[in-house]
Amino acid sequence: MLQQTQVAAVIPYFERFMKSFPDLRPLARASADKVMQHWSGLGYYSRARNLHAAAKIIAAEHGGEFPRTAAGIETLPGIGRSTAAAIAAFAFGERAAILDGNVKRVLCRAFGIAGFPGDKKIEHRLWALAESLLPSTGIDIYTQALMDLGATICTRGKPACERCPLNADCVAHRDGKTGVLPTPRPKKAVPTRTTAMLIVLHEDKVLLELRPPTGIWGGLWSLPEADTGADWPALCKTRYGANIAKTEKLAPLAHGFTHFTLTIQPVLCAATGTLTAIGEPGRRWFAHDEISGAALPAPVKRLLLGLPLGKPARPARRVAV
Q1: Separation between Cα atoms, residue 42 and residue 6, nearest integer Å
Q2: N or C: which terminal CB in the chain sees fewer CB atoms within 10 Å?
Q3: In whole angstroms, what is the distance from residue 244 CA to residue 42 CA?
Q4: CB 54: neighbour CB atoms within 10 A?
């Protein structure tokens, strides 16, 4: 959970997760939907899918015992070289090097290494350096200290060089380059994608579809999507057997991902009659009181909780069609 997410945001999720899955076996037995419910809103959902898959593999192939070496840990879904080394060092005392973002920053500054750390050539150099610096004993203390040095002193902005134990030998401090090292990622234009999300309402319930297990919001329940210029009533009739009495566009909203921005056009679709194609796998009607606890993407959940589904609510801001 702490990968790419701050501690303060993680704590309540971690506590709920551990209450439901106190050890590996109940996690391995849990349904994917239950796991995703506990992760909903935390983002980067592939982490939850990988965590669940790893628990199943450990239960089925390792007799429920977590691998004890960095090499063995790295074979599990979602665990890369640095994370595997950190687990092995802390849990089993293995002498293995880590190279997370904080450590890359410390090494680039301390040794004056220019170039974007994500570049393969620079990353290879940093790995070799990290391995050469490993102590012969006390690997857990060293690893934690290195991580904390980057997180609390050698920070991205305004590093506390006067308190740093490495300042006497730090190339960046000596040469006044702490503001330019490590070299930033080359800037690229962030593309924008657009989609219409259909809020198909019927008898105070909303239709949701289960997204594919991989990709954006993989394994979560979400609103059906369509092109922004589609004939939405015809689409609903073809796809769901739903007769749409009227459609109404709500105010667009934007959601940022790592590599693009998604602009969402929500469209209210009031369905009437018997919906013949709704009962297919991966489609479900959700009542309003189910939405807050369901495994939904954060922007979809916020959108639906703001609608008057089965409760008095302030009307959503609408845009004329």
Answers
A1: 10
A2: C
A3: 34
A4: 21
- In the DSSP assignment, the letter for residue 114 is -
**Whole-angstrom Cα distance, residue 216 to residue 219?**
9
Omega before 117 within 30 of 0, i.e. cis:
no
Backbone φ and ψ of 25, nearest 5°:
-65, -50
Q: Which residues contact 74 (CB under 8 A, 6 or more apart)?
A: 80, 81, 84
List % helix, strand, coil for the chain (3-state, nearest 5): 40, 15, 45
Q: Quick: pLDDT tens for 30-43.
A: 999 999 999 988 88
Q: How many CA atoms lie within 13 A of 105 on its CB side?
A: 22
Mention every residue, 6+ apart, whose C-beta is less than 8 A from residue 222: 197, 208, 209, 211, 296, 297, 300
Q: Which of 46, 44, 47, 38 is nearest to 17 (CA)?
A: 38
Give Cα 266 to chain centroid, integer Å: 23
Measure Cα distances from 320 to 118, 218, 250, 299 in Å: 46, 32, 8, 22
- For residue 151, what are the contacts with CB-CB under 8 A and spacing of at least 6? 102
Quote the CA–CA distance of 219 and 32 in Å, as a whole number.
7
With a pLDDT cut of 90, the percent of the chain lying above it is: 69
pLDDT at position 272 over 90: no
Taken in order 139, 142, 148, 149, is the CA torsion positive or negative? negative
Q: 11: how many CB neighbours lie within 10 A of its CB?
A: 11
- Residue labelled with tokens 């592939």: 46
> pLDDT tens for residues 219-268?
899 999 999 999 999 988 888 888 888 899 999 999 988 889 999 999 99
